[in-house]
What we know:
It is extended and about 55 Å long. It has two domains: 1-52, no CATH class; 54-87, no CATH class. Strands 1-2 form a two-stranded antiparallel sheet. The chain has three helices and two strands; from the N terminus they run ααββα. It has 95 residues and is mostly helical.
Amino acid sequence: xxxxxxxxxxxxxxxxxxxxxxxxxxxxxxxxxxxxxxxxxxxxxxxxxxxxxxxxxxxxxxxxxxxxxxxxxxxxxxxxxxxxxxxxxxxxxxx
Length: 95
């Protein structure tokens, strides 16, 4: 509030996710084997410690169009404006 009062406050975006502990993977169903749980949790841990970026290239749109080249990552702006599904999603994007 002091920054607002002093007219020096600047707005910004804060993204909380797996790394910050705001999102987690829990409650595996009984059909999920221990081996599969361990694989999923290993990927979660890589996301948490910054070793794995989910939306990194190469990345393709659902229709096969190259969206992002190898080694590149979607920006926050690109993530917020996604109006498509990526390859591997078995559903139609709502119109």
